[in-house]
Design brief:
Largest sheet: 12 strands, mixed
Order of helices and strands: EHHEEEHEHEEHHEEEHEHE
Shape: elongated
Number of strands: 12
Distance between the termini: 37 Å
Structural class: alpha+beta
Mean pLDDT: 93
């Protein structure tokens, strides 16, 4: 393909239908609406053949998530590189400092393309699963604590500040606003807080994607109570409760380098079942 026939322009409403081999029209239109102008369409002889967009990450104004692609029949011909270079030129001097994209394998075509263009591994996230929960046994926790359940309204009021208390000092801190908690909350979700000596010291956000499977994401303990056994108290108490309810499997996510949490999850019977990799590219470092 001759690059002289490529052109990068702002999106048009008809682009969504033309790019259905990359994503559904609904998803593309939704992305257009969320990117605040950071959406670029690549055309070949005036026909849309690809797009790139940057989605803001809540609470991290310097970091944006890259999404997009090239029509399958036109890949590996330089179009993706042409679009990436146009995107970089458009963003130089703006508030965008880093761009990130998550892949399931560092050997996938997307990962190879991004690493060729300056992206590097920022972190690896594990999905860990506890199968056959009804057969699991848990040692009673040594640290006293009481679990308290919150509904959506209470979670919207409580979770943003509690999440910040638990994670602000960490590399994986990505704050929630009340509006984000409200928008993310699904039917069946529950927020459980851990109370010790009259103070709230931890939490777990529980999701129920199916009647027999639960997901815990996120889960945290305030820094001043970490390393004292309260994380084990929170998790074992919640797991025992899920077991009593007839839940079959429980999964959660954790950064691979969070060795303390990984050790705790392994000790309770969780196993690493898959990884995802966040690749990041500095654009306008300060």
């Amino acid at each position: 393909m001759n690059s002289s026939s490529w052109f990068v322009r702002p999106p048009q409403s008809a682009d969504a239908a033309a790019l259905t081999a990359i994503a559904t029209p609904h998803l593309i239109r939704q992305t257009m609406a969320q990117t605040n102008g950071r959406f670029w369409t690549l055309t070949h002889h005036a026909q849309p053949i690809g797009y790139a967009a940057l989605l803001p990450l809540p609470g991290l104004p310097h970091l944006f998530e890259l999404t997009g692609g090239i029509l399958p029949a036109l890949r590996r011909q330089g179009a993706g590189s042409f679009l990436w270079q146009a995107l970089r030129r458009n963003l130089m001097g703006t508030a965008v400092q880093h761009i990130t994209h998550t892949v399931d394998s560092l050997k996938s075509p997307a990962a190879c393309f991004l690493q060729h263009h300056g992206f590097a591994l920022e972190h690896e996230e594990w999905t860990m699963t506890l199968d056959k929960l009804p057969a699991a046994t848990f040692t009673p926790p040594t640290r006293p604590g009481q679990l308290r359940r919150m509904d959506r309204a209470a979670a919207v009021r409580t979770l943003p500040a509690l999440y910040e208390r638990c994670f602000a000092p960490t590399a994986w801190f990505q704050p929630y606003s009340a509006a984000e908690v409200s928008a993310t909350w699904q039917p069946g979700d529950e927020l459980w807080t851990l109370v010790a000596d009259g103070a709230t010291i931890g939490f777990a956000w529980l999701h129920r994607p199916t009647p027999h499977a639960a997901e815990i994401e996120p889960i945290g303990i305030v820094p001043e109570k970490q390393g004292m056994g309260y994380g084990r108290t929170l998790l074992t108490t919640l797991l025992q409760q899920l077991k009593n309810q007839g839940m079959q499997t429980v999964s959660l996510g954790v950064w691979q380098q969070n060795e303390t949490a990984v050790h705790l999850y392994h000790s309770l019977g969780f196993r690493h079942v898959s990884s995802s990799y966040s690749l990041t590219c500095p654009l306008n470092p300060t």
